[in-house]
Task: structure prediction
Amino acid sequence: MSVRAGIIGTGFMARVHAQAIASGGHHLVGVAGSTREKAEAFAANRPATAPVATIDELIGLRPDVVHVTTPNALHREQAEAIMDAGIGVVVEKPLATSVEDAEALARRQGDVPVAAVPFIYRYYGLVREIRERIRSTPDNRLWMLHGSYLQDWLAGVDQSNWRVDPAAGGASRAFGDIGVHWCDLMEFVTGHRITTVTATVGNAFERAGGPSQNRTEDGAVLTFATDHGAIGSLVVSQASAGRDNRLYFSFDGPEESYEFDQQLPERAWIGRRDESRLITRNPAKAAASPVGLEPVPAGHPQGYQQCFNDFVADAYGALRGTPSDTLPTFADGLRAAHLTQAVLESARTGSAVAVPAFTGLADRVIASALAVSH
Ligand SMILES: NC(=O)c1ccc[n+]([C@@H]2O[C@H](COP(=O)([O-])OP(=O)(O)OC[C@H]3O[C@@H](n4cnc5c(N)ncnc54)[C@H](O)[C@@H]3O)[C@@H](O)[C@H]2O)c1
Result:
């Protein structure tokens, strides 16, 4: 059954969400921008989409779900307005710019039909395949979890964006913006949870026009330990020349290791002591069950937008009463906020910082969300 959706924000992510909504045969009934003109420009080639100036007008269209694609510091207030109206909500990552705000939203997750956060790298076919292999070989104890998430779009000294301003983007930039994607993916694929973090943050240069104090990091280096006894490391940067969007992981065990690179998502490396091999994505032969829309066949590369389409299909399935154990929810958004806080605290104090367990509030929130949807 088709869903009536709204979007707040008219930038990069709003376009990606709009395509994902359309790909599932759903209807984008309204869009709200920072100004009516921006909303009108966004709706110009979308005749069924009403451009509006405020979130209240958007809610007044009574959509089934609203997607929040605005700068991070606006997420809590906008999500609360949507949830107050009993409408489902998809809020871009980071869910909020503080643990307090993320927790306030996660507590209410069960009050609305769906409350999702687009950690969309979970939706690559080979990510699912690696996850399935790890689940089916518990004796291969993964003990070394490492990787990086590197970009270069903020590598120019005069390059700026609202993310550079902590008031709009939050106190952490590189980790809060992209490091959280890697951590979500690692925990989703391996089933491990980070228990302690030690982090150092750094900057490539003094950014032109940027705040000289209270600046946010261009990069971070983390070491961590997990609840399954693994150790690991993560390097995050938004100022590494030539790295467009390189999210890479290697999850290593004594029998088998697994490697994946988001920029080459049709291949994954399975390492063994006797023989290593590359596997290619092939839905017809995959062990992992597909999620979302009809998967694109082998040899027809799946991309970022397709992951987004499948995420939205998963979220709308939940909205229509089919619970999903792969859907990233507000509980996962809260998890990311806890990790971000731990990274900043460790960088400030120079000490290892404990990360709250994923039990407690987050699990209670999931339990109550599932109880509501049954
Ligand atoms: N899940 C992902 O893979 C992914 C990727 C990129 C960005 N994001 C997240 O998406 C969000 C948006 O990022 P972006 O790259 O699209 O930024 P962007 O700057 O391209 O877009 C932000 C939009 O919000 C609008 N806006 C600002 N204030 C507003 C207000 N009060 N009301 C309505 N609209 C307002 C701006 O006009 C702009 O159109 C961020 O939270 C970011 O972290 C997620």
Notes: The first helix runs from residue 12 to 23. The chain has two domains: 4-120+358-373, 123-293+330-354.
